[in-house]
Amino acid sequence: MLSTGGLNNDILINNVQWFVRVRWFVVILLILAGLSARFMPEIIVKLGFIPPRGWPWAMAAVLASANVVFWKLASRLTISSPDRSVKSCLWAQIFVDLAIVTIVV
Q1: What is the model's pLDDT at position 70?
Q2: Main-chain phi, psi angles of 31, to 5 degrees
Q3: Which of 14, 23, 10, 33 is nearest to 69 (CA)?
Q4: What is the helix (H) or strand (E) element at residue 38, kind and residue range?
Q5: Does the global pTM surpass 0.85?
Q6: Nearest residue to 24 via CA among 77, 73, 67, 76
């Protein structure tokens, strides 16, 4: 079903799936930040940063959990899904991502 305005469901579903793939990359980066703080804190200090404590692990866990939910929701979306369902999934992902970025910063 095509939306009446803006992008059609095919493009929006592709965006939903793309966000899920990119989010796994961010989860890996957060895990790497936690590992580097644990095993190489002196390098982080030399770069002028304070080694992060537990927040990279916590954010990676939250983001990975949310991503599993988004992945399951994305796998159920089809071109014939209601516009509202597709857009709700996309906006929920954007909201969670912005919340995580805000907490990390």
Answers
A1: 96
A2: -65, -40
A3: 23
A4: helix 9-39
A5: no
A6: 67
